[in-house]
Design a protein that fits this description.
- The complex is a heterodimer of chains A (744) and B (136).
- With 744 residues, chain A is of the alpha+beta class.
- Chain A folds into four domains: 185 residues, 2-Layer Sandwich (Beta-Lactamase), CATH 3.30.450.40; 113 residues, Beta-Lactamase (2-Layer Sandwich); 181 residues, Beta-Lactamase (2-Layer Sandwich); 226 residues, Phosphatase 2c, domain 1 (4-Layer Sandwich).
- Helices cover 41% and strands 25% of the residues of chain A.
- The two termini of chain B are 28 Å apart.
- In chain B, 27% of the residues lie in helices and 33% in strands.
- Chain B has one domain: STAS domain (Transcription Regulator spoIIAA, 2-Layer Sandwich).
- Chain B is globular.
- With 136 residues, chain B is an alpha/beta fold.
- The chains are: A alpha+beta (744), B alpha/beta (136).
- Chains A and B meet through α17 of A and α2 and α3 of B.
Chain lengths: 744, 136
């Protein structure tokens, strides 16, 4: 027999127990459906005959989340019914009203008319009437100012009507459930955000890792795993700090090894703000090289602000960097190739450059004239290995019939790359045991051989080799090497032609000048010839010293306009015409007229020639000189007083126009005085300008004390200087000094 | 040709298939043609040397096809001339005079004048102060 007081006490205990149990259920799991099922079941039968928990989504649609009843079949039926006839959110169903208002409703007695009024169709009405719905409490599920749904408790006809304290209990229970639902939803949202974030990180092309301040990697995306050469995140996360990094050689741009402390992530933990760091990453095992731009940013605890993690972003800039390096390398190589016409020296510089920047060692082989291979350049970063490479070549130089290597590349004209050369491959290639031993000692992993290609033919080959401890050579390197081979090949071909032309030009020039100057009693005499820069063109400058008659000498210096074979033939004509003319008439103007006529008669185009002619009469204490000029600069007379003066009167250049006007000027040459005849292409500064140069002023002072040869040298350097270091034309010099009389 | 035209050459030292290093400083001669009722004027701007001389000869032959009574080479803007350039000026002179036309030049730069005096070729040229000046 129950008393009213006992009832109240029992109900009060029941309520406390219900809330405690509900609290336990709500905090035990984040699985929303399972938790709400438990909450609904807790109310049955003590608080309700039927308990329903409905949720509304963001769009306002209401759906049942959990239902519990004394008879499980009833709960299932209701679920099915709600599925077919969902509650209209804007309708009069108490659940819809409570969700809209956020206010709990107590329905102590529900008449059949009331039930029909909010039924969601006749089936729903029949269901409620059949189960004799009698009394109900509907409480909102409210959290953080939002109504998430409603908790409904229903009693059937046999049970008591709900009262105010039931309403309060339902409100309290609903409030706790709402918190749990809210938490679960937040958690689920967080999960989804995290999943999305992780999906983004995973799929980023940039490698991303997150490390803690012990150096442990707690996250790595797919790109990072690939970069680090790992199969799974577990492999990374299980590794010891530093264990992964030990697989790599990390270098800075200048090739210095970087330690972990200089990496941006470490600097973040030291409280610094690191700038992005460009590193060259080499996989020690394979030699695979990547250029990475490493950026790091801190991940701080939002509350304490302490840096918990550092996120690393590794951007692979290998392509860009390689292209940049290749361009820089080619620019350097081009400069080297243009720096000299000595191709052996140039190729040695190229080999040095390539060994420093592309591979460990580089060799250049050239096909000799008789078809043998000649190693013209080799360089290795390590001196011992260089010696070994040289020994290897001298002992086992490849012959042209070999099937692979340099001979094959020269034959085919095609570039080759051999990666990961195995011991077996070396053994097959080696000629004998010693050869194999040396090949092994060279420690070769990758080899690139490219043709040294001139436009018309393959001149030889460039070989690049990397060892097992350095960077792996790849297709990019082949591209650079092929370009290098073409550039160097063209330079070598050009240098060879140039050398050949220079040799011919020298021979020809020598033929146009006297083999040696005759000795003239009582005089000191010297000549010099300075080709202008390039050696490969025959210049038109000439000089001559010859005797006519018993005591008389002729000094000639001249310049034929133009260069090359045509100028050379006129030079020969000029020399020989003057010599022949001297046999008939030794007046300078007569000799020059003879040359002028010869030039005018020559059937080719206008031939122009300038000449300075000096007749030297027999020596004495004072020697009379006759100077005639035809378009030629005035010779300089260096006096004993440290002054130089131009001598002679301008005369018409030969071969251009008629008539020509020539003057003969007589001067005296005293002991110790020097007469200097010169050409400077008749085009450079006027003699007065030349004399104005400091060099020449000094020369004048020093001339009496110097040998004639020395005077010529000094004059030459003064002339070169006045022409800004690069005279446009050849310079010929002829000097004559009347020796001081010596006693005895 | 009735309108003013321009011939231009860009050239390098050391012609031929073999290009020695460091000789690729580009020197230019720009030749502009001006037509006057009584004369054709060729204005030369730049360096007249071994490299650019052929362009001058070509330009002279080209203006002669229009049959001017006189051809004037305006040398005032010639910064440098060498013996090949002088030869080209006198080849032009021959070509013009052979066709019964008159030939004149303007005064050139100091370097041009120095070379003309040194070779005494100045006495064989009609030299004008300005290209439009009447022949004395």
């Amino acid at each position: 027999m129950r008393t009213a007081a006992g009832d109240r006490l029992e109900r009060s205990d029941l309520r406390v127990a219900l809330l405690v149990e509900a609290g336990a259920a709500l905090s035990s799991s984040l699985d929303l459906t399972a938790t709400m099922d438990r909450v609904a079941r807790l109310t049955v039968p003590g608080l309700a005959d039927l308990c329903v928990i409905d949720l509304c989504d963001d769009a306002g649609a209401i759906s049942e989340l959990a239902a519990a009843s004394v008879d499980p079949e009833l709960a299932r039926q209701l679920e099915a019914l709600r599925g077919r006839f969902p509650i209209d959110p804007s309708g009069e169903h108490p659940v819809a009203r409570v969700i809209r208002s956020g206010q709990a409703e107590l329905l102590p007695e529900m008449s059949s008319d009331l039930l029909r009024s909010f039924a969601q169709g006749s089936q729903h009405a029949r269901f409620m009437l059949a189960h004799r719905y009698h009394s109900a409490v509907v409480a909102p599920l409210s959290a953080r100012g939002r109504t998430l749904g409603a908790l409904s408790t229903i009693r059937f006809a046999e049970s008591e009507s709900y009262e105010q304290d039931d309403l309060e209990l339902a409100i309290e229970l609903a409030r706790r459930a709402a918190l749990a639902i809210d938490n679960a939803q937040l958690f689920s949202e967080l999960r989804s955000v995290e999943q999305r974030l992780e999906a983004i990180l995973r799929n980023l092309a940039e490698a991303i890792t997150v490390v803690d301040n012990h150096g442990r990697t707690v996250f790595a995306n797919q790109a990072a795993l690939e970069l680090l050469g790992l199969g799974s995140p577990a492999e990374l996360i299980d590794s010891q700090p530093g264990e992964i990094m030990a697989r790599f050689l990390v270098l800075d741009e200048a090739g210095r090894e970087l330690d972990l402390d200089s990496m941006p992530a470490r600097r973040i933990f030291r409280g610094e703000q690191p700038t992005p760091l460009l590193v060259r990453n080499l996989v020690r095992a394979t030699g695979e090289e990547r250029w990475l731009m490493v950026r790091a940013s801190p991940i701080a605890d939002p509350e304490s602000g302490r840096v918990l993690y550092a996120a690393n972003v590794f951007e692979d800039v290998t392509g860009v960097k390689r292209a940049q390096l290749a361009e820089a390398f080619m620019a350097q190589a081009s400069r080297v190739l243009a720096s000299s016409m000595d191709y052996a020296e140039t190729l040695q510089l190229i080999a040095r450059l390539a060994a420093a920047q592309l591979a460990d060692w580089c060799a250049v082989d050239i096909l000799g004239e008789s078809g043998e291979l000649e190693r013209v350049a080799v360089h290795h970063a390590e001196p011992q290995k260089l010696a070994l490479a040289q020994l290897l070549d001298s002992s086992y130089r490849p012959t042209l019939d070999e099937a692979i290597g340099v001979p094959e590349v020269i034959r085919s004209g095609k570039a080759r790359i051999y990666n990961d050369i195995t011991g077996d491959a070396l053994a097959t290639y080696a000629r004998d045991a010693e050869h194999l031993r040396m090949l092994r000692e060279m420690d070769t992993r990758d080899v690139i051989i490219v043709p040294l290609a001139a436009p018309s033919r393959t001149l030889g080959a460039i070989t690049l080799v990397s060892s097992s401890t350095s960077r792996r050579l790849g297709a990019d390197d082949v591209d650079v090497a092929v370009r290098l081979g073409r550039r160097a090949g063209t330079a070598v071909e050009s240098a060879r032609l140039y050398t050949e032309r220079t040799r011919i030009a020298r021979v020809l020039q020598q033929a146009l000048l006297p083999d040696s100057l005759p000795g003239i009693q009582g005089f000191e005499i010297a000549a010099a010839y300075r080709p202008a820069g390039e050696l490969n063109e025959v210049g038109g400058d000439f000089y001559d010293v010859f005797k006519c008659g018993e005591q008389r000498w002729m000094l000639v210096i001249g310049d034929v306009c133009g260069k090359g074979p045509a100028a050379a033939s006129i030079t020969a004509l000029a020399r020989h015409t003057l010599r022949a003319a001297a046999m008939f008439d030794q007046r300078p103007s007569a000799m020059l007229h003879a040359l002028h006529r010869a030039l005018r008669q020559s059937d080719t185009e206008t031939q122009m020639c300038t000449v300075c002619l000096v007749v030297v009469d027999p020596p004495g204490a004072v020697v009379p000189l006759t100077v005639a000029l035809a378009g030629h600069p005035q010779p300089l007379l260096f006096g004993r007083d440290g002054k130089a003066s131009p001598v002679g009167e301008p005369g018409t250049v030969l071969g251009v126009v008629d008539p020509i006007m020539l003057s003969e000027v007589q001067i005296d040459l005293h002991q110790g005085e020097t007469l200097l005849l010169y050409t400077d292409g008749v085009s450079e500064a006027a003699p007065s300008d030349l004399i104005a140069t400091l060099e020449l002023a000094d020369l004048c002072m020093d001339a009496p004390e110097m040998s004639v040869e020395h005077v010529l040298k000094r004059f030459e350097s003064a002339a070169v200087e006045s022409a800004g270091g690069r005279p446009r034309d050849d310079i010929a010099l002829l000097g004559l000094r009347l020796a001081n009389l010596t006693l005895g | 040709m009735s309108t003013d035209g321009a011939f231009q050459i860009a050239s390098t030292d050391g012609l031929g298939p073999v290009m020695p290093p460091a000789t690729n400083a580009i020197r230019q001669l720009r030749i502009s043609k001006r037509q006057r009722p009584d004369r054709a004027i060729l204005e030369l701007d730049g360096e007249l040397d071994l490299v650019s001389a052929p362009a001058l000869e070509e330009a002279v032959l080209s203006v002669l096809r229009d049959g001017p009574a006189m051809v004037v080479l305006d040398l005032r803007a010639v910064s440098f001339i060498d013996s090949t350039g002088l030869k080209a000026v006198f080849s032009a002179r021959s070509a013009v005079q052979e066709r019964g036309r008159q030939f004149a030049v303007t005064q050139g730069s100091q370097q041009v004048e120095h070379l003309l005096q040194l070779t005494r070729l100045n006495v064989h040229l009609h030299t004008l102060v300005a290209p439009d000046e009447a022949l004395a």
